Amino acid sequence: KLPLLIDTDPGVDDALALLMAFDAPHHEVVALTIAAGNVGLTHTVANALKLCEVAEVDVPVFAGCDAPLLHSAPDASYVHGRDGFGDICYPPATREVEAEHATQAMIRLSHEHAGRLVVCMLGPLTNLAVALKLDPTLPQRVGRMVVMGGAVTGQGNTTPMAEFNIGFDPEAAHIVFEAFAAAGVPVEVADWEAVVRHGFLHTEVDRWLQADHPRARFYDAISRKTREWSAGLRGAHWHAADALAMALLVAPEGAVLRERRPLRVELIGTESRGATVVDWGRRSGRADNADILMTYDQTAFEALIRKALRAG
Ligand code: BDR
Ligand code: CA
């Protein structure tokens, strides 16, 4: 099995992606490195530990950076709840976070699994950016790199042009995309706009979550508030951003259409800070550094989600 490091800010959709990863037939999750993002680091760490307990997996959890590199940014507690897991007041997990810092764990694991390590970024890119500053050779040891983030034609979900994970820490995203471009390792991108094209009817999701299994019950509870919020805001469809990135990672054969293009992160624009600027017409002369998911097999995506939830 390929070693998989997941950097995440759980987060309701992160939780679904993690459940999918724990099931992956060809990958073994070797670490969860935890970012601040959807909510503060204390909560995202506690949520990761709790999810491992619910899923009965023994994966080490490493706490990372507690804020973006340069500028503070609003969190997404209005989506995920004040604690990031729907404010259900779950009893805390009995397992504990590792002593090693997430950025150090990233570097160590990149050496231990040189050339094979698969990296999946489901939150702001702060931890990886810091790891890259500590060890710029890191991308050379990464076998595959998947990011949930960006809005590839400028239709953001937090500002008009920025998607949350990039917009929360644009400098970190810039560092990551440039470092992997320099190393010639393409970044596989599942962006917000792809997520919007791969929604599920709320009525269907509600039905899946009636399954009588601890995973489905826990997920039903933590996602209830955000599903209600999303139904009010976005209508009939529910969107699981991080789960789409994880589907691309664990079952890449489900990707029906992908496009390779140059991608850079906008840092300065008054309206466009945090945008992912894709050179669709290839006018910049830059090398293609992003492998952008356009279409994923929706039936296969549904099957992965339902299996992760044990929702037959
Ligand atoms: C991303 O932002 C977060 O709120 C989600 O967990 C996901 O990673 C979607 O834009
Ligand atoms: Ca996330």
From TrEMBL:
This is Nucleoside hydrolase. Pfam families: IU_nuc_hydro. The keyword Plastid does not apply. Keywords: Hydrolase. It comes from the Bacteria. Transmembrane segments: none annotated. It comes from Lysobacter hankyongensis. Residues 4-302 form the Inosine/uridine-preferring nucleoside hydrolase domain.
